[in-house]
Structure formats: structure tokens, C-alpha cells
Here is the input.
Amino acid sequence: MLADQLLVAVQGKGTAGVAVIDGVDGVVDRAWVPQTLTAEPRFLAYSITKSFIATLILRLQERRLLTLDDRLALWFPALPQAANISLRHLLNHTGGIPDYGGFPAYHAALRTNPTQAWTVDDYLTFIRKHGLRFAPGTGWAYANPGYLLLKRIAELVSGQPFAALVNEQIVQPLALRDTFVAETVADLSSLAPAPTKALSPDGEWLDTRLHYHPGWVSHGVVAATPSAIATFYHALFRGKLLSPESLQAMTTFVRVPSAHAPWVEPSYGLGIMGDPASPVGVLWGHGGGGPGYAASAFHMPDLYCGCNENRSFYPSKNFDSHAEQSIAGRPVTVCVLSAIEGGFDVEALAREILAQRLSRVA
Here is the structure.
């Protein structure tokens, strides 16, 4: 049982949840710990939010309010090489935008005053100060501020704030429950308790919900249950939110340089991580992590395809056959979210669940 599997994996370390959708009917199998909780817990999904932002950008393109080839200079002309950076570059991390993740100054500011996040202007100043890591389109480097720019562009083009866009364009159409954009410390009060050492200069354990401002995630952060995230990805990849053309663009991947085990061929699309050569077959999804919370979600377009010896299928090259497979085959989505800092690997459990599902049909 899923509940037993989660219980064994967590080993009493804290709060976690898992959701699996196996097949085309969209029925969610879910479990969480502690099992004494009367409702499915909510967590910060961190960088899974990038998939939400990419979905919004593609929907705006479908409405002809922007295009993926539009240049950053239309909205942020003062940023380095803004005339040479396209929205597509930002979406697949090939624009050269610098990231704050490896900069001590960001983490020092976070630990010193975790309830007072950097502003949009602070992040823009960071980009201008550090410049591009490489010429647009000539390399790959994960960049959270690139998605801040995309979020702001979505707001400027639509005339709506990010939280309202997510609610109107994704949450309501999919009838997602317990899903929202966290914007203040108070917004975290309904989430699972999440002890962290990341918010204190001396490594003291603090409750993320009481001390962390969501603005420290430059592009914004979605709070949700595992069921909601699984439902989002399952619907997204089955064409419930985007046109076939938009999905083809989203699942056109660039290879990520260097090794990232256990990923075999780590790749990145538009707000989507991918691995066409994983041991269980083609995988799409995203992961995320930050103070107190961790997230991992995977989607297999067709579990039956994963059983085949020939796994050369790569969706960015043959999307039409994938679309037919996903409808006629057996798509599977799994999401694991936790409020455990250390000692529990959400991605490992998600992969384990997929491997077990695959073994049952092999």
C-alpha cells in the first residue's frame, strides 16, 4: 500500500505526502504521514512553481499577447543583453541569467532577516551587478531570476498579479483544492510544520511557517497538496491546459551539461525537467527545495512504453506519437512533498514508486 511505503520511507521524521495518478481517469491515490492528520497536508512546492509560470506564458502566447521569440528588452531594456534574450531562453535556462543560489550574500541576507525578503528591484539589481554567465543561447545554467522576469512579464502583459493568474488559468480550470501562491509569512500558517536550520545564523531549528518570507523565492512559490500537484501535471501533459503546439514547445528539451545522477540524460524544456533515457522510460516533471520543504513530481507519458526494450522515443522529436500514446496508453504521475529537512529523499521515493508500477506491467 502507498501509505505503508510512505511510512517506511519517512521513518517518523516529520510530515510528508504522496499522490499517484495511474491511468487516464485521473483518480488520485494518496497518503500522508503522520496518519493522524485529518486532511491532506499542504507544502511549499518551491521550483515546481516554474512549471506553473511556463504554463502561464504559453497560454498567453496562445492568446497572442506575447511570443516565445519576444525579447526581454520589450519589458526590461536596462538588463544586460536584453535585446538578445528571448522568452524561450528564459524558460529553458539558456539566457545566461545569473542565479543567486551560489552567492553568499543572498544566504547571509536570508539568515539575517528571513522575514524581510528581497524586492523585485533587489533581484534586478543582482542581475545587473553580476551580468550574464554566457552569451544568450550559447550555454545552459539554472537561473531562478529568469523566472522572476517571466512572472513579471506575465503580470505586465495580462494586467493581473501572479497569484490571480495562477488561480484563474490553472487552479480554477482544474478544480484544484488547497492550492495558492504564498505571498506573505502569514500565508504559510496553513502549511505543514517545517523545522529548518536554514533561517538562523547559528543553525538553530526554526519553524519555516513563522520565519520565512516567500519573497525569498524570486519567482514566487505555489503552496499545495501532493494531490493538487499530481493533478496539475497529469492534466498538463494530457492537453487539458495547453494546445498540442504549446505542449510540443514545452517538451522540446535542451541537454543539461554535466552529470546529475540518477538522471541518465538530464534535459530541460520550458519549465520542465526531462529524462528520455531513465531506467523507467521517458520522464517529465520538476523538483524543488528550500527552507523546510522539498518537492518532486514525475510524469510518465505511457507506463506501457516504459516496459519496451526500445526506449529511443524522445518527445521533443515526435510529439504527435506521444500525444496518441498518452491518450491510448497508461500515463502515470507521482508527486512527493515533504516538510522534512534532511534524512528523507522525495525524489528517491517518487522514482521508487514509478519503478514498482512499471514492474507490475513488465
User: Anything to note?
Assistant: The chain has one domain: 2-361. The chain has a mean pLDDT of 93.
